Every structure is written in C-alpha cells, then in structure tokens.
Amino acid sequence: MPISHRIYHKLRLVIATASGTLTDEDVFGYQRNVWSDPEIAGYNELVDMDDVGHIALPSPDRVRDLANLSATMDQRPGSSKMAVIAAENLAFGLGQMYAARRDMNPQSTKQVEVFRKRLKALEWLGVTEAELEQESVG
C-alpha cells in the first residue's frame, strides 16, 4: 500500500505519507482503516503527497465520495485540522477539491488546508520538526 502512517499520541497527530502510484483504493483504505480507530478520534492529520509519482483517479466524483466518507468519520463534537502537502499541481488541485468538499459537508468537523511546503503545513498544525523527532525518540 503506497500510504504509510505514523501516530504521534503526545502530539495528537497522524502523519500519512503517500508514494508511488496512488489509487482510490489506497486513499479509501487508508481512511477506513486508520480513522476507524477510536484512540485517534479528534487527532490532527498531515498527509504528505510529495513522493506520489502518479495519481490514478477514475473520476473526480471519487474526491467528493472520499470527502463525504471522511466527514462521516469525524469526531463529534470536536474540531481538528488536516494539512495536505502537495507540491505537484495535480495533487495540489485534488487536495483543494477535497478541502472544498469537506467544507461543504455539514457532518465535517475537520478543517482542511493544502500546502506546497512541509514547514508551512507543520506551522499551521502547531507542530515543529523538533517535536516530531523528540516523540520519535521518546
């Protein structure tokens, strides 16, 4: 599966890294498998798309479907953030479509922003690389 993830419990953060060819089965599988865990409900999320070489998307409607599925899995009540890192134009555009679809869904409690650079995404999430490294060691 070209999406790996790591959970940082102290930071209440999930970092997902996508690579290679990314399919809709990959992203739907990640959403269902990772976010069905009640221990991480309400955590912030960072999705790094920088190592994706190709996005195999059968239809733009799948972005809507993913946004709707994600919104139904959000913690209620509550609010969290999701930052998407996407330097490549297609991934950036799809990320923006996803963010807009989530924003339009009344069930969504997660604020989504798309960034070109990791540092800006981490700043928006209120996390530093040093904190990530410290939790990795600790």
Say what the CATH topology is. Answer: Transcription Regulator spoIIAA
Largest sheet: 5 strands, mixed
Uncertain segments of ≥5 residues (pLDDT<50)?
Answer: none
Cα end-to-end separation = 27 Å
User: How are the strands ordered across the major sheet?
Assistant: 1-2-3-4-5
CATH class: Alpha Beta
Approximately what portion of the residues adopt beta-strand conformation?
25-35%
DSSP helix count?
5
User: How does CATH name the architecture?
Assistant: 2-Layer Sandwich
Mean pLDDT: 93
As for the number of domains, it is: 1
CATH homologous group name: STAS domain
Topology:
Layout: E1 3-8, E2 13-23, H1 24-35, E3 44-56, H2 61-72, E4 80-85, H3 89-104, E5 110-115, H4 118-125, H5 129-137
Parallel strand pairs: 2-3, 3-4, 4-5
Antiparallel strand pairs: 1-2
Please summarize what this structure is.
By secondary structure, the chain is an alpha/beta fold.
Polypeptide structure, described:
By secondary structure, this protein is an alpha/beta fold. The protein has a single domain, classed as STAS domain (Transcription Regulator spoIIAA). It has five helices and five strands. Strands 1-2-3-4-5 form a five-stranded mixed beta sheet, with helices on both faces. α3 links the parallel β4 and β5. α1 runs parallel beside α2 and α2 crosses α3.
Task: Note the main attributes of this structure.
138 residues, alpha/beta, 5-stranded mixed β-sheet, 30% strand, globular
